[in-house]
Design goal:
By secondary structure, the protein is an alpha+beta fold. The chain is built from 2 helices and 5 strands, in the order ααβββββ. It has a 5-stranded antiparallel β-sheet, with helices on one face. The longest helix is centred in the N-terminal third of the chain and has 26 residues.
Amino acid sequence: MMPHPISHALARFARAVPLLFSLLFLLAACSPASSDSRWSGVPPEAVATLELIQRGGPFPYRKDGTVFQNRERLLAEKPRGYYREYTVPTPGASDRGARRIVTGGNPPEVFYYTADHYRSFRRIEPRP
């Protein structure tokens, strides 16, 4: 006797469910910061760095808070010392990685995120 077409489809679906849950878990783990963060569109490590910046530290890396020179000229031209850089830790990296937050002003009035070591910047702002 042949299996019913519906039971065959249900069996195939049941085999796919664990894979679907695994994919959903991976997508959630790779998603930007959680919705309860006051910063949107950045990874959780960037949110932690932003919170440290707003508290004034302490910072885990020696270079955090040093002058960012804007040699790439991708940000608006400002006097030397206007921009400061901070490391955004990269999970699994053995060094500082490529991710940074650059702030402008003292106290910071503008924030930029780069995931590619200054090749591109995206302005980020706290949610209202």
